[in-house]
Amino acid sequence: MTTMTDPPQASFRLSMLINDTRYRSYTFQFIALMLLIVSFAYLGSNLASNLAAAGLNISYQFLGSPAGYDINQTLIDYSSQSTNANAALVGILNTLLVAFMACVTATILGVIAGVLRLSNNWLVSKLMSFYVEIFRNIPVLIWIIIIFTIMIAVLPGPRAFRGDDPAASMLFDAIAFTNRGVYIPAPVWGAGSMVVVTIFILSVIGVFSYRRYATKLLYDTGRLLPMGWPSFAILIVPTLLSFFIMGMPIGLEYPALKGFNFAGGIKIGGPLIALWIALSIYTGAFIAENVRAGIQAISKGQTEAAASLGLRPGRIMNLVVLPQALRVIIPPLISQYLNITKNSSLAIAVGYADITATLGGITLNQTGRAIECVLLLMLFYLTISLSISAIMNVYNNSVKLKER
Amino acid sequence: MSDQNAASSVAFVRTEQVPPAPPPFSTSGPVKWARDNLFSTPFYTVLTILAVYFIYVVLANTLPWILNGVWAASSLAECREVLDGVSGGCFAVLTERWNQLLFGFKYPSDLYWRPTLAFILLFVAAAPVLFYKLPRQLLIITGLFPFVAYYLIWGGTIWTPILALAGVMVGYLVYARLVSGSFAAGFFGGIAAAFVVWIIGGMLIPQDANEAAVMQAIPSRDLGGFMLNMMLGVTCVSLSLPLGIALALGRQSNMPLIKWICVIFIEFIRGVPLITLLFVASVMLAYFFPPETTTDLFLRVVIMITMFSAAYIAEVIRGGLAALPRGQYEAADSLGLDYAQAMRLIILPQALKISIPGIVNVAVGLFKDTTLVSVISMFDLVGMIRGPILASTEWNGVYWELLGFAALLFFVVCYGISQYSQWLERQLATDHR
Question: How far is B354 from B350, CA to CA, in rounded Å?
């Protein structure tokens, strides 16, 4: 017969704080907390005495006072009399604008380069690996500066477009590439243009519902409706008809030389274009690697199995390979989008008025409110980053392999 | 009688074996290769033609420019005179401003041998770390290198690096003495001992030692050029590795407070661009130092870049830790190893091996990001090009040669590092596939 002796009644001794695993973690955490508090108190007291010595205080009053500087590229109404908060808002919108544009083009470039790098064409695949290696191994700041230099040093000035036999001419008589920026036609919204836009939006919805109906029909009855030309027709025909019935309400305002510069149309500044192109091709190289890795991660057996079921190559890609490859591609792709957003802060090197250049640059230097400006700047980028990673987590959970 | 003899006498029947003929011209050799790899489908044919045309256009424009390049001239105008309207690069700016590109424009020119020597020693010091087949005794040089390099580049009194070295040695001796008892005691005891030596020694060094020194003291703001990029890259990568390991272990810890400190630190740093952290270094960090001290910009930038790359390295190492099978942790526990032993002997060696490609990626990215310091008006390679050189009257307008040179330097270093990491991965592959 076994007897159980009672465990020795634990009387707490001080040495148990170190030697007993039940209490040791509390000791360590307590020490860490103390260290944290002490270091914060030390930094805080340094900050307080430094601010007092410099006669400063922490205050966000400056956001409401007039900014006093002009911004050459704005999406919203802004003048030098607007407040600093307004200037920061212009910067935020500019950051989001260039980040969005670069994300779109970097994805297109990256997918094309990644797929071509896997192609059987030796020359093209070597060319693409050359592109990837060159752009991945040279700092993006150097690329931004190189492309900005092309913008200002190689493109002709507005003066070159003048005269009977000009040195430079506009592309299709509509787009002018100058060293001050690129001028493109601006749409002019006449009376009745809302009708056309509404019909266009309705036809986009129509295309989606037609495709959904066709897919449902295919799964239910096995009847295959044509997909390509009906969607195209639904998209184009009603819009064109309404456009001509309403008497062509949407026109284009072409840029034209007026005095020393172009007037009319939309001006896209040189810095914006340099930043956009540089971020696109730099990040495109990284995305190409992600795409390649994603496609290579799908085993050849999947393609062969799909082929032996009798699927055509296009459908193998759409129905078998891509859905699996996307699961591998999307998470690094989204972190590349995040990198684009963060790298867009390099705009300050070429003078594009993003949030770093307005709030962290001119406003900071004019008001001397270094701590407030940098904190706001970090808060903005942190918000963007955390919301993008939140979206990524939701997506990751939705495509996670459903296992038993 | 015999059919065979009868058959062999017929004129049109062969009697000997036909020697094997070579395959037809179109299915062997370069032609077959070209048909398989360049012209297999009409689409690929079009792509090939486009690619060839693209390569032709690029080469037709750049080759004459490079071959006609002028290597000896004292200004852009003189360059254009020599070229006389022919397309050609003005590489004379590289030879003319070579020292500025490498060392910045303030470093005393008669002392260039000091950073150059430090650069050569860097290879000697890095060799035993990079190639583990070299004799282990060379690691002594690696250990001494930071102090020697500091003395060479900054100069000043020799007692500063000697004191720093003495502190580290005493710390190591205390650690070696105490570590058999417990790792924590050895670790913290070693750090405490090192600090004691530094503080006591700091009082012994006379205040005016720098003026009387044999090696002329160079202030940090005089550093520049590619040297600055190399220094920032090497220093920050080596400092951020231990910090990154500590953060990764902290994030895996089951003590909630320590875990959350690490998580908040990592996510905060990863969420903001490096440039805002550099702004912190240049305009904000000074407020957090004790009022009477002045910390130089180089040190502040090193602190911020180290924190930045430590957060990224921590995430890479966390991936390595997570990739280890649970059995490894349990096996270490069942051997009776404590936390420090299990991590040092079982977990980290394997986790770090898995993380090598990721760590190298971070290192390459960090080295590229050192160009960002030009935004906070430090004159690194890009800062030198955009600032003093392009703004000078002689070389105003020489863009491509300078930017191309900078791009080439970075490409060589970064591509070299990534090739090394692939080689190392193959060397360390112990699984049999």
Answer: 6
